[in-house]
Amino acid sequence: MTADDFEKLLKAHKMRGARTVNALRLVFVDGVTAYAASKTVGIAESAISRAKQKLQRPLCPHCGQPMP
What we know:
The chain is mainly alpha-helical. 60% of the residues lie in helices and 0% in strands. The chain is built from four helices and no strands. Helix 2 (18-28) runs antiparallel to helix 3 (34-41). The longest helix has 11 residues, at 3-13. It is globular, with a radius of gyration of 12 Å. The mean pLDDT is 93.
């Protein structure tokens, strides 16, 4: 995933939290494992997994909002 695609995805899902976003950037853009990203950023691997699941939810083709 490119950095621009990642930023669009963050904006669509309204993700916040600097450390979580940094960890997700490592996972999605740089290809680092969630375990390595958790050690690098200093948050729990489970927090990264939960945020990763949110970002992987599909977006509505009409309005662009995340679908339930």
